[in-house]
Amino acid sequence: MTKLKLAVVGAGPAGIYAADILLKAERKFDVSIDIFEQLPAPYGLVRYGVAPDHPRIKGIITALRNVLDHGDMRLFGNVRFGTDITIEDLKRHYNAVIFATGSVRDAPLDIPGIDATDSFGAASYVSWFDGHPDVPREWSLDATSVGVIGNGNVALDVSRMLAKHADDLLVTEVPDNVYEGLKASTITDVHVFGRRGPAQVKFTPLELRELGELRDVDMVLYDEDFDYDEASQRAIATNKQVMVIDRILQSWRKRESNNNAGGTASRRLHMHFWARPIEVRKDENGRVAALVYERTKPDGSGGVVGTGELREIPMQSLYRAIGYFGSPLPGVPFDKKHGVIPNREGQVLEAKSNQRVPGIYVTGWIKRGPVGLIGHTKSDAMETVSHLINDQGSWWRPEDTSEDAIPALLAERGVKWTDLDGWHRLDAHEIELGRTHAHERERVKLVPREEMIRVSRGE
């Protein structure tokens, strides 16, 4: 029987689902799978890209854990592709590789002043409040007024985590350094900007509803944004999700606190629609001083056009949440314009010639860009795995597929890798930290990488 030795790079949902689908697929060959992850813990953006007050989304972790614990694959954590292990190493020891490295950088916003001090990408802030081991422990929240550019779920996550009171996160797995940072926040006003109207937003009703449930935070909307054109009225009438979003926004407009001055809450969250960012104004020290935006209007076909009317809102920090962007991998083709690995249905292509690259596959956001939810990730993986199975004739022909080859290689290079047993140790340690915390919690994340490695390796 033919044997397939497969490497998967990335232990987030995309990589784990691809491995699981391959193991369950009807096939005429034995499969052995090794998953490589640059962090000491698995689960990718489910662990490091979802706000700590979203426990039901994190229920996905249970499904991912069940796949890993099934015993059909090995996990090598704390292994960086390109340095600790290379594409040449994979060709030497595997028949093929699936890259599932996701999109973790912020998409750029090319406007004057965007490089100001305290102008941030959302990904950096999300990584901080999720306890990512590779970002600084401290985050300055000494502004009173902050802006968030974007009308997707990430923009709402960022806005909520800027406006929310730190004590309301004590029931979550928020790391202690993050709690202390949020506790010291001086923010009173969060301004959210979207260049289209309320009927064209990209966030989901669930995310929006949670925003309006924040304690001691007034929602501020502006009547001029709700003069709907025919296209918006049609969207509300025919699309259930848009209808629910409109219903939520309209209910906020009826609140007594919804006026320009806000109500009695100590914090306010302002929603600005029809607002296209034009420039970030800086103060004399190069710090964010204001956002200049152009008022837009519908163009009749779902887009917007500028009105020429410029407005300016003072603020001391700014977050752009306009999408994520993939990162290039050493020795692997990359599309710089779209931030993905060029591919045809998961089969990787040479960037210039569009020719198939044997043995290399891709799935998840690094395949299709940062769009879609977990359901898309599964169908995405199925498509990729289907091609991998049918491409048997173009698999690599490795020199050494023995089980001990990779551990020996990593040991020779001095890599302190972590395995599945190590993740179980770290998982149990974090749960114990939560149990013994002053405010008893389900879990407290361990943040420093060296501590994560030490606990995982039982050192």
Describe the structure.
- The chain is α/β, with parallel strands linked by helices and 459 residues long.
- The chain contains 15 helices and 18 strands.
- The strands form four sheets. It has a seven-stranded mixed beta sheet with strand order 3-2-1-4-18-17-16, with helices on both faces. Strands 6-14-7-8-10-9 form a six-stranded parallel beta sheet. A three-stranded antiparallel beta sheet has the order 11-12-13, with no helix packed on it.
- β11 and β12 (288-298) form a beta hairpin.
- α6 runs parallel beside α8 (205-211).
Keywords, separated by commas or semicolons:
459 residues, alpha/beta, Rossmann fold, FAD/NAD(P)-binding domain, 2 domains, 7-stranded mixed sheet, 6-stranded parallel sheet, 15 helices, 18 strands, 21% strand, globular
